[in-house]
UniProtKB/TrEMBL annotation:
Membrane topology: Multi-pass membrane protein
Principal cellular location given in the protein's record: membrane
Entry's transmembrane regions: 45-64, 154-176
GO molecular function terms attached to this record: amino acid transmembrane transporter activity
Species assigned in the record: Bailinhaonella thermotolerans
Cellular component, GO annotation: plasma membrane
Keyword entries, A-Z: Cell membrane, Membrane, Transmembrane, Transmembrane helix
Localization terms from the record: Cell membrane
Protein name (Swiss-Prot/TrEMBL): LysE family translocator
Any Pfam family matching the protein: LysE
Amino acid sequence: MHFLAFAGAAFLIAMTPGVSSVVIVRETLRGGRRAGLAATLGNETGVLAWALAAAFGLTALLAASQLAYDVLRVGGALVLLAMGAQALWQARRPGVAPLGAAGAAEGPPEGRVRAGRAYLHGLATIAANPKAAVFALSFLPQFVPAGADVPLTLAAFALIWVAVDTLWYGAVVWFAGGARHLLSRPSVKRRLEQVSGAVLVAFGVRLITETR
């Protein structure tokens, strides 16, 4: 029952829109489902790392150290600001290629480069966010039953969390990829870049200005 309750809670958290959702949808619209899945895998690599760190008590050190927390917080904010600025710059460029137009002419090497970049974007989004670490530290232990092996149970929760996240974001990528060709006009692409860029910048500003 504890594992089912945790899976349900993880699903509700995955459905809540956040910066990871923005990055994954943006990468899908820019590079197709392959890029979207790569961004999802990058995001889940970071989620798994933070969850396992929480399972073995490593994130408690981050939560206890204001300096370490602030360094990671500022670094994560700069990553989001850079990604947002890049999106806004892409939106200002004249003659932006329609979504999907480049994909038809891309060969496998270009596709791999785009997927690799999307993976790194997804990883950076979650790995550089100290709030994800603190959240994992406070969220996972609530579901550990009395008398259970705490590290082992938390590690199992980490895997469940990643599985639930991957299923949800996989569905998001599938639907966003299907809508990609409907959003092929350059004016629509620019608007999407503007919106995603503004959201990423807003997340970055909030992260760099807020305190614990």
